[in-house]
Amino acid sequence: MDAAARTAHDSTLQPFSEMEHYKHADELPPEIMADSYDKLERLCLKYMNEDDFSKVEQAYCFAAEKHCNQKRRSGEMYINHPVEVAIILADLKMDCDVVCAALLHDTVEDTETSLADVSGLFGDTVAELVDGVTKLTNIEVDSMDEKQALTLRKMFLAIANDIRVVIIKLNDRLHNMRTLQYCSEEKQIRKARETLDIYAPLAHRFGMGAMKCELEDLCMKYLWPEEYKKLEQAMIPYQEERMHTLNKAMEEIEKALKEAGIEATLSGRPKHFYSIYKKTVRQQKTIDEIYDLIAIRVIVNTVNDCYATLGIIHSLWKPMPGRFKDYIAMPKTNMYRSLHTTLFSNDGMGMPFEVQIRTPEMHKAAEYGIAAHWMYKEGRNNPDDLDSKLAWLREALSLEADSNTTREFIENIRKDFFGDYVYVLTPQGKIIDLVTGSTPIDFAYRIHSNVGNHVQHAKVNGALVRLDYKLKNNDVVEIITSPNAAPSYDWLKIAKTQQAKAKIRTWFKKANREENIQRGKDMLSEALKRQGAQLSDFTGKKEYFEDILKKFNMSDLDDVYASIGYGGITTGQVTNKLLEQAKKEAKAAAAAERLERLEEEQQSRPENRGNGKGVIVEGDTGMVVRFARCCTPLPGDDIIGYVTRGRGVSIHRKDCPNIGDLLMDPERVVRAEWANNAKSSYTATIQVVADERTGLLMDVSQVLAGMNISITAMTAKVDKANQNIIQIQLSFDVSSTEQLNNIIKSMRKVRSVKEVYRVNQ
After folding, report:
1. Is 110 a catalytic residue?
2. Are residues 564 and 611 in the same domain?
3. Could you list the residue range(s) of the whole structural domain that residue 648 is in?
4. SS3 404
5. Is 468 annotated as catalytic?
6. Are residue 85 and residue 15 in the same domain, yes or no?
7. At 379, which helix (H) or strand (E)?
8. Fewest Cβ atoms closer than 10 Å to its Cβ: which of 58, 230, 488, 532?
């Protein structure tokens, strides 16, 4: 195939051969070939045209070469991972750009490849998909949690821009979880927790039921390994018993449907372990009380057949009251559709079992969720349906404006959209999902901010209820509004969702700023009094509030007061910072005093003969430069300067034992470096630990004499714990750390010497 044909799919592509040596998979050296590439090729060729597959092949060759020197923790070649992810996506018949992005998804993160490279070779769409699933690496943050939060924020924004990002990311995570056994225990627990908190709920939100179940089971395996093993063993007899009942039931259903002229496919579905675990442990149920350990799934051709099948099944067995659910007439918010019913068997024991009835289209949607839209070309052009699946994400992203930090934003999303839900209805029959424990206030704000801001009363199932009423599944909720009604501060305690709380705070923020400022000032003053402090102690020190203003993105102190007043931040968040700053300042002052006292006490020790002229100090205004006796820095050491009170600038090594105290007062710390022409002599001290023997001191001294080094001080003493060990401390003048290191190397060669190291004075 010529270059023009190869790039016809995307006009932005450059010929692959211009940047990479390999153009086709069969040209790759065997040692960098992925084990499963043949499978990927077979799957792609089933539904892709020649141009599309050529692009996939190019992406594979590019990724294989970039990852050629990398291996996974299992010892296998790294390229196997992106190929396995691509296989899962090709099996779902995802489009060419998605499969390419899967193959390339780690090149930007783990190789020298840039997004510009990906865009130039494979087009902007592929580059955007790769960027969406790429972790943030080149950022400075205080913790792994913060980096994780920023990465998740980036991913959520990318999903909102192109929903295919979530399909790639979830399948990437799925394959990583399948191979998690090769990672350290710490990483296993961290990845499993993140997956259970974010990725499994994300799969559920997008209707990817099969993936959600597998991810949850894999997480349980690492988070609760003992419980997993016990449950695995406990399930064996139950499964055998239930399968006997279900096999008989399936025979009867199949026979009855055939007689009614309804074509159907039946199968038994075991319940996944994590779901059982939640019910047995968290809901305090026994395995006997779980009716859907194994369920019968009946797939029929049409919706009419679904309801006809339900009627036939109810004529065969008695349905269990309260266990029938019609998710066809009222789909779940993730667009899941099926009929569910639980029945009593006729096996003499009356053992309950569940039946799920759905069409093939419903089944694909239930198993693959959003990915089902790309399984067949006709499904790719349904923007309205795709838009409905992203509605919750737009609501989630709106929380960012009301979150003080990225971590808080991610946590708010997790609380509101990734927890356990209750499903309630509007009077028009629209299903609204809310986090468990939600109230009519949460419902009102989920409908619209104006509805929430003007709630007067609430009705549930036609009856008036209190605004703190805890909503239950299938409640029909009606909100009665009044233009004169307005939020109350008590609503912040009543509301369960972060979304509702944020909108309530926004209302107060806009409604009466002056009142909020005074209210917040009074609240902060009282909070500080309880801690034995006065607000006036801090208001005159602007630096005390700098971290608070930066953290909460505020411009002045009034913003802080107002935010406290309307409930945007708590007094505890502010007082903790203020008291922390005060404590830090007091500690820094004490440390400075201690350091200067230490310097005075050390006057009797051998002086570092450097005169300070070999050191360049940032902003040097002619101050005296001295070398600290606590760490005796030498040319070649990393150093910093510390401005003392009345004694000039003291030069310390960056690994000085007092460095922690110095950094507590950062305003007095200055940058310092050695001048290129630094030539002087500096005192250094080493400790020699050796087995005691005759002539040891002479041999040690001769090492220094042979290097024309004069000893300025020497002590020797027998180790108290071991009388056969002698410890010798030597002080002498050197010109650099390089010379000192040579001395230490030579000293280690002396017979019976066990250890030699540099010491601080």
Report:
1. yes
2. no
3. 605-674
4. coil
5. no
6. yes
7. none
8. 532
